[in-house]
Amino acid sequence: MTSINRDVIVIGAGPSGLSAAHHLTEAGLSVAVFEARDRVGGRTWTDTIDGAMLEIGGQWVSPDQSALYEMLDVLGLQTYPRHRDGSSVYVTPTGERIIYDGNDFPASGRTVAEMNRLVGIIDDLVAEIGAEEPWAHPRAAELDTISFRRWLEDLTDDVEAIDNISLFVAGGMLTKPAHAFSTLQAVLMAASAGSFSNLVDEDFILDRRVVGGMQQVSERLAERLGDHVFLNAPARSVRRHPDGGVTVHADGGLECHARRVVLAVPPNLYPRISFDPPLPRRQHQMHQHMSLGLVIKVHAVYETPFWREDGLSGTGFSGSELVQEVYDNTNHGDERGTLVGFVSDQKADAMFALPADERRAAILASIARFLGPKATEPVVYYESDWGSEEWTRGAYAASFDLGGLHRYGKDQRTPVGPIHFSCSDIAAEGYQHVDGAIRMGRRTATAILDDLAVTSPPVG
User: Fold this and answer.
1) What architecture is domain 46-84+205-213+295-388?
2) How many Cβ atoms are within 10 Å of 207's Cβ, its own excluded?
3) Surface-to-core class of residue 227, CB atoms within 10 Å of its CB (0-12 exposed, 13-18 middle, 19+ buried)
4) What is the predicted pLDDT for the residue at 456?
5) What angle do CA 172, 178, 183 make, to 5 degrees?
6) Pairwise CA distance, residues 211 & 207, whole Å
7) Which fold has domain 108-197?
């Protein structure tokens, strides 16, 4: 048994937990970080597969993500723009391939008008409701007890417009069918990015990448913490004491006595930890109404970015295709070309029912319908499957089921005694992004510092 004493124990070495630990140590408190995996980074993971560097997890930086940009500056990390020169491709519900430029969406005039009208309605709701406390709005219960799909169907009978608008939230963000989450949850997703208009603009939301990979944010923060980060150490129990302190036990015979603990893991993993005394009834109920979605992030590397030779940007979009989104994901300074595509929710279910070779063939055939037959011949092919990852179990972040957000949302960030919660899943701005993880880390650290300012000095 290795027993240590710290001011704060952080469970989870992703961007949120490490951000919290960073701010706490900068303020003079002692910390220990327990991480279940054999690496830091959480849902960010930059790895080399068959000689190709791939962003297996979160990767993009958008202009509104000021907290992430500040952290990149602190850590000395640089960004570069996603390649977007050339025409985009839209595949219609009938399978027609349309090449288009700019923001002129190539659907029928009626469908485009309906999409613009729906975006305007959602933008108005976002401006009214905001990201910080959507559950407090007078219409919260109304919007939270109707699915996003049904709400859109009540507004229009244009199925193509509904499919396209749904995709931006369902497939592109929450990775759940649009009938499985509420309109209020969709509004929160849009509000976290500033507007629904931002959310549907790939040149905004998928603006830049980090040179060398997003996982470096966590790696460099962990380097600053040194041997205070413990890998292969999943926390198994959190015991609260009458004096307000807490003891955490982790694999490897680790025991840490602290004044506060930060749970910096997605809410679906909270039940993996035994709490003594148990968490309050409301916490137990709330966590049962939160879940992650499912997506296959597909990486395909080619000898050259062949689509550019055809005047294409590599961007493809379709609400009816198997791969509903595809983008040029070529690494900074790499002569080879990389595409990234996404297969979400029920379509991912269907793909995982297939043998690996058939799944690969179906996915590449779908990408080829956007970018041509050369897409079926990558030199490296890899599927990120976070749904089977033991310490994540889904993508990209937790969201509530119907009715859950207005019922429980106000409690998701509320500490339970010495236990604080910090992850992108419960962020306001930057919700489910690295930016939100960093914001929550800073927010949680500030709350702990304010709380401990009236208690005893830091642990030596």
Assistant:
1) Alpha-Beta Complex (3.90)
2) 18
3) exposed
4) 55
5) 100
6) 13
7) Guanine Nucleotide Dissociation Inhibitor; domain 1 (1.10.405)
Comparing CA positions, the residue from 156, 146, 148 lying closest to residue 174 is 148
Pair of tokens at residue 216: 């470096």
Rounded Cα–Cα distance for residues 150 and 304 (Å): 43
Query: Token pair 């949120």 is at which residue?
Result: 16
Task: Extract the runs of DSSP E, i.e. beta strands, from 268-333.
Answer: 274-276, 290-293, 295-302, 312-317, 325-328
Residues 6+ apart with CB under 8 A from 407: 135, 144, 289
Tell the burial category of 104 from Cβ atoms under 10 Å away from its Cβ (0-12, 13-18, 19+).
exposed
Asked whether 198 and 64 are in contact (CB, 8 A), the reply is yes
**Cβ atoms < 10 Å from Cβ of 123:** 19
Q: Based on the number of CB atoms within 10 Å of its own CB, is 79 exposed (0-12), middle (13-18) or buried (19 or more)?
A: middle
pLDDT, residue 211, reads 98
Q: pLDDT at position 105, please?
A: 78
Q: Is the distance from CB of 259 to CB of 459 less than 8 angstroms? A: yes
Beta-bridged to residue 296, according to DSSP, are 343
If 0-12 CB within 10 Å is exposed, 13-18 middle and 19+ buried, where does residue 101 land? exposed
User: What would the pLDDT profile of 212-238 be if each residue is shown by its tens digit?
Assistant: 999 999 999 999 999 999 999 999 999
Domain boundaries, the chain: 2-42+215-279+416-452, 46-84+205-213+295-388, 108-197
Angle at 36 between CA 415 and CA 3, to 5 degrees: 75
Record the tokens describing residue 86, joined without a space. Answer: 């050339």
Instruction: Identify the residue whose tokens are 């949680």.
Output: 444
Residue 455 confidence (pLDDT) above 60: no
Contact between residue 41 and residue 57 where contact means Cβ atoms under 8 Å apart: yes
Tokens of 321: 């295709």
**Alpha carbons 7 and 457: distance in angstroms, whole number:** 9
What digits encode the pLDDT tens for the residues 223-281? 999 999 999 999 999 999 999 999 999 999 999 999 999 999 999 999 999 999 999 99
pLDDT for res 458: 66
Say which CATH architecture domain 2-42+215-279+416-452 belongs to.
3-Layer(bba) Sandwich (3.50)
Nearest-angstrom CA–CA distance, 367 and 351: 14
Q: Is the dihedral of CA 62, 68, 70, 72 positive or negative?
A: negative
Does a cis peptide bond (omega within 30 degrees of 0) precede residue 277? yes
Threshold 0.90, pTM exceeds: yes
- What count of Cα atoms within 13 Å lies in the side-chain half-sphere of residue 83? 24
The reported pLDDT for the residue numbered 457 is 58
